[in-house]
Write a structure and sequence with these properties.
The protein is an alpha/beta fold. The protein is built from nine helices and eleven strands. The protein has a single domain, classed as Aminopeptidase (3-Layer(aba) Sandwich), CATH 3.40.630. Strand 9, helix 6 and strand 10 form a beta-alpha-beta unit. The two termini are 28 Å apart. 52% of the residues are buried.
């Protein structure tokens, strides 16, 4: 941790509402996995992902989008960019269009929802939900004449990761289960976008298996830490399952998750509540490796693109292994 001030700032301004306590043991040590990947064959070029990630980041976190506040002209530009990305990569709309619309008083917000159909006649009726929020806070405290809070790490990085996973599986067609790629507005207003979508999917009776929300994966953790960590680590065997198929510990345990109540503070939580499925956030931001949360210096040029490409490459076989098992291995644990 950098300082008590940084922690206090995070807890004060992290917008999402918590209603219950994180069920994890703060004294638990991170565990290293050495189980080899099982029945997963992938040929992934990190340089290709790096180029695509960087192009998306320099658009989504550009000054032209003015911080992507929900209801703004800037977030509309972001929505169109994401829609074009999905369309170009043969990721079809899940609903009649890519947009899942909702209203917050006089503000209209849009979640963007695409689908990659599974290749198994039976399992394609089960859905893996991947997501990230593409909104940000708009303007921040002025620094050196800059007022635009570009939101590169928070959460253009997670949005882009979800987009890249969808693109990969749409092209490789190696997923037996179907994938929903879900990008949310109004996270910064209290998980309103993801909350709306989760309830809509519940009402429509979706057969959802698991949900992963990618939250701030633009910077790497220290070399002695796992690549990423998962909120609500002990609520399911999700991390254990992903690590098994990755062949290494790509998702670790973060002791401060309980203290910060991270499980309830990101877009995974509405899906957990509405659908009663394993739903977690995966992040590489651990409060010690990036100083610009909700800051005007959360810029595209401060992201680590080698790290982001490495994260995507290492996570693909983990996701693929989980997507393709005949039985639902990932299950909720008793609290």
């Amino acid at each position: 941790m950098k300082s008590i001030l940084i922690i206090f700032t995070f807890l004060l301004f992290y917008n999402c509402k918590a209603t219950k306590t994180e069920a994890s043991n703060t004294n638990k040590e991170e565990t290293t996995y050495s189980v080899p990947a099982k029945d997963v064959k992938v040929n992934l070029d990190a340089s290709d992902f790096k180029k695509s990630i960087k192009e998306s980041m320099f658009f989504l976190a550009s000054d032209d989008l003015e911080g992507r506040a929900t209801g703004s002209v800037g977030i509309e530009k972001a929505a169109v960019f994401i829609e074009n990305f999905l369309m170009t990569n043969d990721i079809k709309p899940y609903f009649e269009t890519y947009r899942d619309s909702f209203r917050l008083k006089d503000i209209i917000g849009y979640n963007i929802v695409g689908v990659v159909e599974g290749n198994d006649p039976k399992l394609k009726n089960e859905y893996i939900i991947l997501g990230g929020h593409y909104d940000h806070i708009g303007m921040g405290k002025e620094v050196n004449g800059d007022k635009i809070a570009n939101g590169a790490n928070d959460d253009a990085s997670g949005t882009i990761a979800a987009m890249e996973f969808a693109k990969y599986f749409a092209k490789s067609k190696t997923n037996k289960r179907s994938i929903l790629v879900t990008l949310y507005a109004a996270e910064e207003m209290g998980l309103k976008g993801s909350g709306h979508l989760a309830e809509r999917l519940k009402a429509e009776g979706i057969n959802a298996y698991t949900m992963i929300n990618f939250e701030m994966i633009g910077v790497p953790r220290a070399s002695d830490k796992s690549l990423s960590y998962m909120s609500g680590y002990e609520r399911s065997n999700f991390a254990e399952t992903l690590n098994k198929y990755a062949g290494e510990e790509v998702v670790g345990f973060f002791p401060q998750a309980k203290e910060f109540q991270l499980f309830m503070r990101s877009d995974n939580y509405p899906f957990y509540k509405a659908l009663n499925i394993p739903a977690h956030a995966i992040s590489t931001f651990d409060f010690s490796n990036f100083d610009y949360y909700h800051h005007v210096d959360d810029e595209a040029d401060k992201m680590d693109y080698d790290h982001m490409a490495n994260f995507v490459v290492k996570m693909i076989p983990a996701l693929q292994g989980m997507m393709n098992t005949e039985n639902k291995e990932v299950v909720l644990k008793d609290e």
